[in-house]
Amino acid sequence: MKNNQIPKAKPPKSNVAKPHLHYTPSAISFSFEALERTEFFNLDCTCANWASELFDMLKEISKLSKKELLSGKYSNSTYRVHNHANANPPSPLPAGVELKDCYQMRIAKSKGGIHGVFYDNIFYVIWLDPLHNMYPDKNYGGLKKIKPPSTCCMDRDEKLLELEKENQKLKEENAFWESEISEL
């Protein structure tokens, strides 16, 4: 029988050139360590391009320093960076986080944004907000609860559960018939 195990990673044997990256120590980095999913902040209702535009925004902001980003120059840009000193979030903030320390970065016009806090030049993303729930607008439907996310493979996952149950039932039947045969 053929071994269908995934092969172990091995160091490359070729001398592939490393991509030329312009690393700047003061540039903004993003961390998702503090990411929370709540009934108001999650990934439901995103269009097909939302994740792509999120990564485009993260890439562009990663070229800036925290000082540049918060200078006010980007408060009216596509990214519309601002703090939340006067916001009224629909979900409680994580322990130890104060509203005055929170910022929003808009992904693109009408795409919502990300909310989080800075620690040095690292922006810790706390919430993903595709539905604009930090600042809900009655003209656009107001505050909306997020539907629990489903997997793009939900049909496959349901089929796997069904097959696992059938497999278990067949194992039990097999054990029964094996015991019946052994008693003959």
Number of domains: 2
Shape: extended
Our estimate of the beta-strand percent is: 5-15%
Number of helices, counting only DSSP H or I runs of 4 residues or more:
3
Number of strands: 5
Low-confidence stretches: none
**Rg over C-alpha atoms, rounded to the nearest angstrom:** 25 Å
Order of helices and strands: EHHEEEEH
Average pLDDT figure: 83
Largest sheet: 5 strands, mixed
Q: N- to C-terminal separation? A: 33 Å
Give the strand order, joined by hyphens, for the main sheet. Answer: 1-5-4-3-2
Describe the structure.
- The structure is a single chain.
- With 184 residues, this protein is α+β, with helices and mostly antiparallel strands.
- The chain folds into 2 domains: 112 residues; 35 residues.
- It is built from 3 helices and 5 strands.
- It is extended and about 85 Å long.
- The two termini are 33 Å apart.
- The model has no long low-confidence stretch (mean pLDDT 83).
